[in-house]
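re: ur msg from earlier - yeah i can do the 5-O-phosphono-beta-D-ribofuranosylamine complex, just paste it... oh wait u already did. ok heres what im feeding in:
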Amino acid sequence: MPHNSDKPLRLVVLISGNGSNLQAIIDSIENDSLPARIEAVISNRADAYGLQRAQKHGIPHHVLPGKEFKSREEYDQALQQLIDQYHPDLVVLAGFMRILSENFVQHYLHKMMNIHPSLLPKYKGLNTHQRVLEAGDDRHGCSVHFVTPELDDGPIILQAEVEVKDDDTAETLAQRVHREEHRIYPEAIRLFAEGKI
Ligand code: GRF
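and the outut:
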């Protein structure tokens, strides 16, 4: 069902680490009038720096560590309960480093986005920058997509390309791709908020 664009889109953002994409979304809400509100940030890791970003901006945040649960299904049920307390219109995966169970994904079908550091369908999975260099590709980039049960699959919403330079390392490439991630993730959320997807 399209979002009622009179109200800010309710977001729950899931992270595991630095949270630079989370920061880009916060900045876009605060400075570029992205019509959204982050209701909560949830991390599976207590040491995720993104939690401090949430704290600094007064956003409710939670840690749900995987080791406290016997199975992926149990973890995902607890995660789902926590998320649903906030009644999100959209769940935003921003560097959330866990495989998601089928039931969880089905529950948020068409309501959960992910950002991946490659031009999908190329380079699903980890270490994408290194793999691009090893393959000798001259283009690389990032993709925002809806989450479906297959890993790093699902309909693509936006992509951005960067040129691979001769002297690039995985680190320099990652930096350039990150800049593009920070541009297209808020843009994809805006399209969703405006009912344009
Ligand atoms: C990004 O590269 C994103 O594409 C991938 O995980 C990384 C998260 O970075 N899914 P950050 O935590 O947002 O800085």
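cool cool. The radius of gyration is 16 Å. ping me if u need the other ligands too
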